[in-house]
């Protein structure tokens, strides 16, 4: 007995020893693995830090401060307001690429001349076309750069020499302040704007045309600055050329107020790029060019990755994207310190823009007279530039709303004629705080106050004053629910008949429906080439949601290019991992059609993959100590109103929280986006931007009684001639805009006349974070300023003034006279 007990005890000891030994080995392995992982992470972190230090951009370094009167710039202004030297057209020959022009045309000293604080550019027209477009497009490019503390930069004599104190004193030694020579970039810009208003020209009929300003202010964002070759500077030149084209075409169409308008693009620069990412790009660009030359062949057979395409990505662009991904990963760390800098500069930039307003006679005290002011000003902020504007204007907007008297009183723009935020990297609270101020004044539900007064808080002729546009991640807001698909399928089967006994009979009946349908009657779209498969495939598409999700399902095959920087990176920066978790959980099902994603895949391997990614996404979303305040962790354009739990997408209810996005914007008829080359902007007929007077008033009148859920695609008949606009109403805007959301199961959270538009954009209008260069989008936002989107009521004339003589109209050409050639710039 004792021997057996001893044997058992020995076995237990041996087993215990083996278990302990195994545990020690496992613990040792885990410890070593953990140390290895920590070392690798530290090594990666140190590599990132060293890389960031090695390619860091200089602090408080200006790029465009060369005195316009210097020998290299030669932008001296004469007494008549004209410049002594002609405009530059060098960039039209090099595709709007400054670095290439400076490299290949060394004799022109462009590496120095592109540093001028004021630059005049031209885009030549190869030859006159049928619409008499032969004059080159001219515009002026100016720069306003700020140090990280918000201070402006002074002009310099030449790239290697500053002005001495005595020289600066001489520039301001005149008795008349108007004769002082500029010391800063802002003073040089204002001197240019004043010179424009001194200029005149005579048209072909002898009428004297006074010149006026059309100012486009662009505040760049993260990972950009004012350096030579920066992509945002390139984009602004294209914007300016587009607007010069639009003004010229309007002048030729008989709108004489545009004939003397000169375009000035003001680039607000700051150190948004703390890293010189070009140094990381160059090796990959060289490798991509070499590999692409060998493997790509005909570039038309592959995609460049800019526009959506089902073609495979070119090797050249694929390898180049590696460099972009590396640079993006390293630059992501700089978001933590660049955002506070943009907010610190905000009040300084605002004061500079207020000074431009004063020069243009657009200061707040004169807002009521702005309809008669020939000068126009649109202010655009992208990314952290949008955050800069939102930060600068938020308190002003809240105060203006609280002081607004309502009762159909017009709400005037807070800055210039219109402020546009493009993919703003700003907390949603900077928008929702303004919405709350409006919400306190406007009744939405019975018992809150006078509902009718809420519709009249802003007048029927109110135009938007601040527009935020963000490339949205999901459609529709709130997503598609199983009940939507079930009822939609019921509607589709009801259309085909209830007595269906088999799928084949269902397909046959649907084929007969397609053959017998009337022209223009609703049809279920499907891209399956085989007619039999198309009939069956269409039945998998929900009836009521077909038009809403069909294009999204198609885009899933080639990838929806939304703004992941503000949807994903910004919440991570703010400590909110839930968007990342939601994206991971949806990765395995996003490629499927909206209503098919509720079913498990038939393939067992796909089921396991879906389950795995869902668990990973749920784990990330459930991590503790996250920032759960969505108004501080989400950006302005990625906070949607909550869809009611009792609503279907085709039934509309007011959300319980009336905060977040308010409108939708998409291309007309799902047209493919068009991005014209710089040198073709002057003559490309596809870039025509039609006159759009009264479109917003007509859209609101098309949905009586208050204009709620208006659609820019559905306009009321043209309005009667306006004494202030004898040419009458125009056409549609260049894109489709909607008050509220199509088939989203919710009513708009703002009244139809609300001047604050927070728009969710499809990627055929605004693509990814920096894809704001589509011509339709450029046209649409400028139509708000160039044209008159709303019809103002005709003011009653006092009795004592009714017999007063009217001003003499200038000579007008006859109806059969040739079209006027303008000098719009």
Description of the structure:
Helix content is 38%, strand content 8%. It has 825 residues and is of the alpha/beta class. The strands form 2 sheets. A 10-stranded mixed β-sheet has the order 1-2-6-5-7-8-9-12-10-11, with helices on both faces. A two-stranded antiparallel sheet has the order 3-4. The protein is globular and about 125 Å long. The model is unreliable at 519-535, 540-544 and 797-825 (pLDDT under 50).
**Sheet with the most strands, sense and barrel status:** 10 strands, mixed
Distance between the termini: 110 Å
Average pLDDT, rounded to a whole number, is: 82
Main structural class: alpha/beta
Specify the overall morphology: globular
Rg, nearest Å: 31 Å
The number of strands is 12
Percent range for helical residues? 25-40%
> How many DSSP helices?
23
Spans of 5+ residues with little confidence (pLDDT < 50)? Answer: 519-535, 540-544, 797-825
> What proportion of the residues form beta strands (DSSP E)?
5-15%
Strand order of the largest sheet: 1-2-6-5-7-8-9-12-10-11
